[in-house]
Write a structure and sequence with these properties.
The structure holds 2 protein chains of 2 kinds.
Chain A lengths: L5 E4 L5 E4 L25 H24 L7 E6 L9 E3 L5 E3 H17 L4 E4 L9 H9 L5 E7 L6 E6 L20 H17 L4 E6 L2 H4 L5 E6 L16 H20 L1 H5 L4
Helix pairs in contact in A: 2-6, 4-6
Chain B lengths: L3 H38 L10 E10 L4 E10 L4 H16 L15 E8 L12 H5 L5 E7 L1 H6 L4 H18 L3 E8 L17 E2 H4 L8
Classes of the chains: A alpha/beta, B alpha+beta.
Chain lengths: 277, 218
């Protein structure tokens, strides 16, 4: 079989010759003495295989990057509470329709994710659909990206306004290895500062806010500034009918206020630079 | 003509009947006397009622997420366990009333039992009580509150309302039995992850964290 030479122009505009006599023949070892490492013979099957392999590797790498954003980027974790078999509480709107808490928290999470992403903030969510996610899994997802803020979203029929809770764990000295059930203890001081920023933004938006501390398994295991935000029916003002957590307009107002609070939290360089306690 | 032996048998039987009737009459009289004597030994006094004492209850208010104190006069038994159950029963009775500031159905029957044990360190989840703590009657105590499944099933779901319930129970126990410094919860005698989907019931609560200053949020 006669040998056919083929010329290939590389990115460096150097003309290389491929020797068709050998299936894979590297120029560095060719008799012509080229020092570039270039396959000198690629069969048609190999020609197809290389782009397919590259595509597969690229496709596999995309979720990995999505799950583990760069630690230098400002990342927020949104935890839509409940989901799947765990419906949470039940809430009635003004028409008497019953909505499970898990549906409201997911709607809040999706809307807030869009608002934050539009402002250039990397968002990691614990669930994107009606799926069961246990508390340990939620904490795992929250702890992986080294987030600067973790918000656990809840809704309730009792009380009024917005309830913001930080962990009731006593503050503890940070250490390299944190106990899983009390990891939040090393971050609780910063969580209280985050709660303060959220409080200011929500008050600025004209909402009634209650600050408190609670024992919630999911945020107690989070190694990031973490707060639980519970949306209760709007506080009654005048003759206007107060909106409930299942009302879309109310959810949008709350999400916009939370997005503004996160921007404020990000802009405070003194807080966000210290990623670790 | 009646035969002689039949006449004799008739009088013998008549005499026996008279004797037996007399004996039975006397036995009945004695039984009646014994019955009357037994009734006299039955206590006729009313059972002793514990004297009313001042009890401090921490009421939760869903409207502003606060705990407020109220002092009531309650008959409290001398036993610490019974006293703890009595104050919690009164607290939950008031929560079960219409127009309660923190409505929870169930009432006093929602508390099955309250056990008082020697308390250990702040992290009492795994450390057994020390011999010194066991021997003393004046050391800090851990209260184990056993709630009924019906109470938990009917408790409103929500972070705020569940947190207020837990904190008001802890604060009320500490206010009336100051030796109680830690509180754990069980439901129908078994551990339970959460009260109604939110508040962690696997943790040991410190009463010092639950008692707020007057009118402030916990």
């Amino acid at each position: 079989m006669p040998s056919t030479d083929r010329k290939i122009k590389t990115a460096g505009s150097r003309i290389l010759r491929k020797n068709s006599g050998c299936p894979i023949h590297f120029a560095g070892s060719s008799r012509n003495g080229w020092d570039s490492i270039i396959p000198t013979k690629i069969s048609s099957i190999q020609r197809l295989f290389v782009p397919i392999l590259a595509s597969i590797l690229l496709a596999l790498s995309i979720p990995a990057f999505a799950q583990a954003p760069s630690p230098n980027r400002f990342t927020v974790v949104l935890d839509a509470a409940h989901g799947g078999d765990d419906t949470g509480g039940t809430l009635k709107d003004s028409s008497g329709a019953v909505t499970p808490e898990k549906t409201i928290t997911l709607a809040l999470s999706v809307r807030l994710r869009s608002l934050l992403a539009a402002r250039g903030i990397t968002v990691v969510t614990t669930r994107e659909s009606d799926a069961t996610v246990d508390d340990n899994r939620r904490a795992e997802i929250a702890n992986r990206p080294g987030a600067q803020a973790c918000l656990s979203l809840h809704a309730t029929q009792t009380g009024s306004g917005i309830h913001i809770f930080a962990s009731s764990l006593p503050p503890a000295e940070p250490s390299r290895i944190l106990p899983w059930k009390t990891a939040q203890a090393a971050w609780v001081t910063r969580s209280l500062a985050l709660a303060g920023d959220l409080n200011s933004a929500l008050l600025h938006a004209g909402m009634t806010v209650t600050l408190g501390r609670t024992a919630l398994t999911s945020i107690d295991s989070m190694a990031c500034p973490a707060v639980a935000i519970e949306i209760a029916p709007e506080a009654a003002t005048g003759s206007a009918q107060p909106l409930g957590p299942s009302d879309t307009a109310y959810q949008t107002r709350v999400d916009q206020a939370l997005a503004a609070a996160i921007l404020e939290w990000r802009s405070n360089a003194a807080r966000t630079e210290a990623l670790h306690p | 003509m009646i035969p002689r032996h039949q006449t004799v048998l008739f009088f013998i039987l008549l005499a026996a009947s008279i004797v037996m009737g007399t004996v039975l009459w006397q036995l009945r009289a004695r039984a009646h006397e014994r019955l009357l004597a037994g009734m006299e030994t039955t206590p006729t006094e009313a059972p002793l009622v514990a004297p009313p004492e001042q009890a401090t209850l921490y009421f939760a208010n869903d409207a502003d997420s606060s705990l407020m104190t109220e002092v009531l006069s309650l008959p409290l038994p001398p036993s610490p366990n019974a006293r703890a159950r009595a104050v919690l029963g009164k607290l939950l009775d008031l929560y079960a009333m219409p127009n309660a500031t923190h409505p929870i159905p169930g009432g006093a029957a929602s508390v099955s039992q309250v056990f008082l044990l020697p308390a250990t360190d702040a992290d009492a989840t795994s450390t057994p009580p020390s011999p010194a703590a066991k021997s003393t009657d004046t050391g800090p105590q851990l209260a184990v509150v056993d709630l009924t499944g019906a109470f938990v099933a009917n408790h409103p779901s929500g972070l705020e309302t569940e947190t207020l319930t837990v904190l008001s129970i802890c604060a009320t126990l500490h206010a009336n039995l100051p030796r109680i410094t830690q509180v754990r919860f069980m439901v129908d005698g078994q551990p339970r992850p959460t009260l109604a989907g939110h508040a962690d019931l696997t943790r040991t609560y410190l009463t010092a964290d639950a008692v707020p200053t007057e009118g402030t949020h916990p």
